[in-house]
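note to self: the first set is below, dont mix up w the second
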Amino acid sequence: MKPITVKHLAASMIAAGILGAVALPAQADDQFVPLLAYRTGSFAPLGIPWADGKMDYLKLVNARGGINGVKITYEECETAYATDKGVECYERLKKSPPTGASAFDPQSTGITFAVSDKAPADKEPIMTVGYGLSQSTDGSVFPWNFPLLGTYWTAADVMLQDIAKREGGMDKLKGKKIALVYHDSPYGKEPIPLLQARAKKEGFELLLYPVTAPGVEQKSTWLQIRQARPNYVLLWSAGIMTPTAIREAQASGYPRDKMYGIWWAASEGDVKDLGDVAKGYSGVTIANSASTGKVHQDLKTMVYDKGQGTDTTGKSVGTIAHTRGMIISMLTTEAIRTAQEKFGKGKSLTPEQVRWGLENLNLTQDRLNEIGFGEIMRPVKTSCDNHTGDDWARIIQWDGNKFEVKGDWYRSDPAVVGPLVKEAAEKYAKDKNLAPAKCEG
């Protein structure tokens, strides 16, 4: 079979008008990884660098020699963040040769909801790094879902912890008003149970402001905020909704240094065109994805310097969204590597075997240093009953030109998040008539 480069294949597809369908052809002993993406639509400013990062890290793994010699093949499928298109991509790619789809990263809470019901029958792992169903941390109920590194409950709890630190303690939240401006979709509604639980526990008033997609019309929302005068605003948005919210905050006189964005609303693409208008705006990051490390140097020398990089504009590498994409592909390939320790080094694996690797991840600091993520992540270990692992996060703040990391590491409070996960997982199991798995230890 004559080798076809991704560059040549992409060029031919663009010429044919097949946007986003980039593939690396498979050989019999390769490992297939599906890449769902949204390079079009209102979330494209976030989706493009995210997709670039996912593909770039797979290229880097291949440049390093693969996973114990097993090369990664992949195909990108454009969803435009639409649930129906995402399900179509899932159905088309799940049986791709030679191994079937190692694991899916749907990149959408709506798509995740849709394919999670299909995954057990298909024996297909669903990775949702920083999103998805927050209760799927409970692997006994959700054996095929992996919300690695943190959920929306992680993010909401970390935001409140940072606000409490600014105020002088969690007890100082009593009597405060905290508003949630959220995308009126499953994605935007995910943090509400955590915020309601915290409001009840800490005694603050929670104000909820849904925004109709895509979020370009928010004037009435910010008029309400000006009247209510909340002490802080949490922003659960993505794509065009984020800069729109920040501009409306300025227009209504709401201070940007009292605003916190979820990680999908806290990338350079969200604020770079706003400059000082967004100055003081804070966000929460998955791990320390605002940082760079040795993996970026390796990507430059082993992929981009050879003309094989995905980002042809030269703008996304090193950005927060691109780094998050690399984290996702790194977790996928490390799960494959972990599974090879059980099922055979140098062998391509089934999705069911990769699921075992996801459930038995143990990324030590030494391993993170070895693959170039030592500055970006802390160690993470998963188990049968904990499919998130360790949910470390950082707070960043926009200074008018760039995001700066502020303060130390945070993680969610298990005393608050744990009972929510247990209650929601038990309800899900009851509603679906599922018998939770028996986890040892």
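second set (the one i keep forgetting abt)
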Amino acid sequence: MSTGPQLPVPIAEIARQWGRIGTIGFGGPPAHVSLLREMCVDRRGWIGARQFEDAIAATNLLPGPASTQLAIFCAWRLRGALGAVVGGLCFIGPGLVLILALAALFLTGTPPAWLRGAGAGAGAAVAVVAVDAGARLILPTWRRVGARQRPRVVAYAALGAIAAATLGPWLVLVLLACGAAETVGRRAAPRGRATPPGRLGSLHPGALLLSAGTAASAGGLAALSWTALKVGALSYGGGFVIIPLMQADVVRNGWMTDGEFLNAVALGQVTPGPVTHTVAVVGYAAAALPGGLLAATLAFAPSFAFILIGADRFDRLIADRTVRAFLDGAGPAAVGAILGSSIPLALALEEPWQWAVLAGAAVMMLAGRRGVVLTLLVAGAAGAAVGLAGGPLPI
């Protein structure tokens, strides 16, 4: 992989193209990767196919929203740090504005019954979305690893699932412990080139985040900051792991009810851009618009930092044995956490009709192989119909 930006693409063009993808990027990471590849590789020829594939591999090794980091990296390749910042903000911005507007609609005042029903219906399907997301992630991991490593993958995934279902805010410690266990377990194996001190190794956020977590026990903005930082810097295994990382904090601190949190996750799925936008709804519930902006800033800041500090070392990151070992432990645990989060998500449902919506969503996604956005829209429509008919709605 090349070690620096190559093409002097105008900043205005980066802003326009990355803003376009941020506006039409429904469907999560697969859609984002496809749109970026079409623009940067196929249509414009800004980035070589091999360089783009290497960038996907490197960003998937980093914690945080991988498709967001890929968007930031592609912009960095064209215009360095300025391009990365502009491209990243334009990619994130449209969905963030939309989801904050929806948060204000759902969380301020008294929305009409049909809108409350739509949120409750879409929220009822979220547990199935979690199962589908976890299954899509665990199968490639299972196929990739060898027979000797598979028992450890099962163990890490099981620990993550149990922690997500039972431990709540302490899930982060389980993710770190699984990564550390895999790293220690491979120390006896032959090592590749060591990572220079102060470079890739310094990017790992674990110790900093644990210190922040201690400070966050005071509550208020410190607790919100800790929750958002966890989302941005410890979401190994894809964007959906933010759900178990946030849910217990949200309810424990009184920012949202379980039902409102389900609505927030659904909003993050049906709006364009990364599902990490969900954290902005949590921030809005905690401290109105300033809280939403603070949460979004802290959740996305690690992605910008990883690219701005380490993009020219991605080739080294891909080959680094320690990084791979840590993520081979933390990654399956995070996927297990996604699967495990479906239990508290389902238990949060309050009305019998929501369980019927959940069953219908399971048929659509798991048997019918329908997409996330379509499933949530159908579930939301069913909930809206219940609201219009005067049916019972969650408090």
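remember for set 2: The radius of gyration is 20 Å.
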